[in-house]
Design goal:
Elements (H helix, E strand, L loop, with lengths): L5 E3 H21 L2 H16 L5 H10 L9 E3 L2 H23 L3 H21 L3 H11 L11
Helix pairs in contact: 1-2, 1-3, 1-5, 2-4, 4-5, 4-6
Length: about 150
């Protein structure tokens, strides 16, 4: 697959840092509604990439203030959006579990997102992206949306 677009890796890293930070706060203070908020931000950012709250904070505040420097590279944004969408689904399951009285399952699901985002942030490996590309190799991305 030819990569026709570019991705600002700093934007992605800021997104991951925001997700990790807010989910850790949610766990520490036991605020399930914060999990729902983060999941909703991720879902909106997946469906409408330009409307993602963390991306907007980076683009409109942090980058113009020169607090973070862009690192734009040739890359496929669809893989990252797929990963973010999967994370949003996991957080929805986390929130539903917490509301349903299944706190150990709910918090475990939130920790899955925290850990996977941290692996991506600190080690540069995106499991959701890996899955996206493996599905593509198997020809199973036909039904997956593509964003431009």
């Amino acid at each position: 697959m030819a990569l026709a677009t570019r991705v600002d890796q700093t934007s992605i890293r800021f997104n991951q840092a925001a997700i990790i930070s807010l989910l850790l706060v949610a766990f520490i203070v036991q605020w399930p509604w914060l999990i729902a908020f983060v999941g909703l931000v991720m879902l909106v950012g997946t469906i409408w990439p330009g409307a993602g709250l963390f991306k907007l904070a980076y683009q409109r505040v942090l980058r113009p203030a020169r607090l973070l420097k862009p690192a734009v590279i040739p890359d496929n944004p669809n893989a990252h959006l797929f990963a973010q969408g999967v994370g949003a689904i996991v957080l929805a399951a986390s929130f539903v579990s917490l509301l349903g009285g299944l706190a150990p399952i709910g918090w475990a699901l939130a920790w899955v997102v925290i850990i996977l985002a941290a692996i991506n942030l600190f080690l540069g490996f995106c499991l959701g992206c890996f899955i996206y590309y493996q599905l593509g190799r198997l020809g199973l991305t036909v039904g997956l949306p593509t964003w431009r």
